[in-house]
């Protein structure tokens, strides 16, 4: 039998942000790499493995001499570039687009600046891995994956080498480091090798990976570690010790597999680990999701408009690099210092601002080519306001649309707020029924000046439509149909004939009623003293969080909007120190309610949960796909959850803030927030440690509760990609007043991202079902029929 080969993989895991800010972290990247270059020069047999394009970019800008030497070592085969990502992101919470962009941008940098095209994906420290990742890795050009978490105790494996198989069948040869970690302590190299030997001595696999070097804050290999390795090797002649690279290790494993080594297929998520981070600092998580959503919207819109109008391809790389950096596995989980997260929040604000400005510029460029007219006003009367409405979603929009505009440049002093003086017309000039709403502002209440109204609208996917709002002395306002109208049933209930929602002051339970079905909702506080990561020893109480502290009571309810297009309730719930405010909206004919949610929080060591009926199964939207789980404590999910097998029947839930759910002891719950301390691994005694609390203050986000679990993906998409409207002006143009930039025949196909160069638009699409889909795609007047295998990411060009 061939003796085992221990592939020693020198590395220096570096958190660019964690218990320090990014200035310290990035410059430590330079310091660590300088240290390693000196060691490599002294020890010709030594190798080094370094990932994260962001670190290389920082070195290139600030230490060009070091960068040049690194390029020489890469060419010699002694310095391995691994990962091909911009930074090592969390692997449960970024969106599919954000995660895919890590590699399109990171790999482009590796090719163009480092001259390499890495095949090994590397996740040294993230807290678990979504089951959707193999399809993203395969689409990004990876063949191999190395990782360390969760370890054998959390996620048992027959062997650390296996094929990770995606939902679409993509296979990634994967290896969890045998020692369970990417590095070692200053004096523990011999112990790590002894442990590795004890675990693999009877296995048929020859090649064994062992990470070593100081990490977390960089550092890398030391002289003593090298001396200890040499001494251990001399004492164990039956083991071959080699300084290696990720590339060489996986090539050796692949050769064993090709020669008949049997390895298992693993077709599930590689979870869970340090579950408290799914809920920590929910306000930051919401900001991250909002910035990413705006960036994806803007990029797709801008690239479609540019392609449609033969304009130069837009550049989004700087905004993406900020977004991707803040997906790092100690930033997005909320496990860094308060000041570090404050700086990250500032960067995400920049991403959101850039995205809004770029999208607005692109839509104005499109709008300028649309022929827009308004009704001719009578002498000395105000002109109607044309409104350009755009749907950024790849799904057509049908539902309530709210529009707001001024009727004149000064108030109509001779009119009363109860007078009907406004008409709304569609793209064909047809007058529409509408429901007048309260304006967003509360100034000049008694004046007829600015108006807000709700209409029923159909907007094409990635498409536009023009409406006009304006004053008329004799306005045309058709009667709204009564079928499916949303109304206030009484002071505590709104309904539309399909569904209703009720909240009664003094009670602890709200109810969403779907025919004879009743879906109760309640809000409760549970003890959660476990710190930023949750229980670091993963004990059951820290995972399940079932120590109930308080069920909140409904304190206030009143009707905000009567109907018929939309009805709204204001509901306030309160606990001992904090409160939750909900604006609950129900549209005409809708089988769902939407919650404008505001948490005003002043608690510590507690988890606030929204509770709904428990299901026998819950299918979660996750990074790269969907994951069905049964009875669980804390688990991660993204845009939506499909709850089935509930006592209340199947239903759907969506939110755009945190990521933490559980399904246990009668309740399916969504964690609204988690009140602890920043960067805390201690059990958090609120009385003893009152300083630096997280989530003290206001958290504002959206949620949806739907009567059908099957409807929730589309509803979540609409919530995250709301219709955009803005004032424009009458002008000539060659485009019609309604149109679309992109249509996809199947609602189960998502656009993950769009790229454009040299007049070619490339769309990366994903089929989000378990069956192959053949569908039409039309873009810029060109139509194609494409077949998408289940869950795979496929590119189509125009």
List the helices and strands and how they pair.
Blueprint (H helix, E strand, L loop, with lengths): L4 E6 L11 H21 L5 E3 L2 H10 L1 H13 L2 E3 L14 H19 L5 E4 L9 H8 L3 E4 L13 E5 L5 E6 L12 H12 L6 E6 L10 H13 L4 E4 L2 H13 L5 E3 L15 H27 L8 H9 L12 H30 L17 E7 L5 E10 L15 E4 L9 E3 L12 E10 L3 E9 L15 E4 L2 E3 L3 E4 L7 E5 L2 E11 L12 H5 L3 E4 L1 E9 L4 E9 L4 E9 L4 E10 L4 E8 L3 E6 L2 E5 L2 E5 L3 E5 L6 E5 L4 E5 L2 E9 L21 E10 L5 H9 L3 E4 L10 E3 L1 E3 L4 E9 L2 E8 L5 E7 L2 E7 L4 E5 L1
Parallel strand pairs: 1-8, 1-9, 2-3, 4-5, 5-7, 6-10
Antiparallel strand pairs: 6-7, 11-16, 11-36, 12-15, 13-16, 14-15, 16-37, 17-18, 18-19, 19-20, 20-21, 21-22, 21-27, 23-24, 24-25, 25-26, 26-35, 27-34, 28-29, 28-31, 30-33, 31-32, 32-35, 33-34, 38-41, 39-40, 40-43, 41-42
Query: Total number of helical segments?
Result: 13
Rounded average pLDDT: 96
Instruction: Report the uncertain regions.
Output: none
Classify the helix fraction into a percent range: 10-25%
As an assembly, this protein is single chain
Say how many strands there are: 43
| Bulk shape | globular
N- to C-terminal distance: 55 Å
Major sheet characteristics: 10 strands, antiparallel
Instruction: Assess the beta-strand content as a share of residues.
Output: 25-35%
Q: Evaluate the radius of gyration.
A: 29 Å
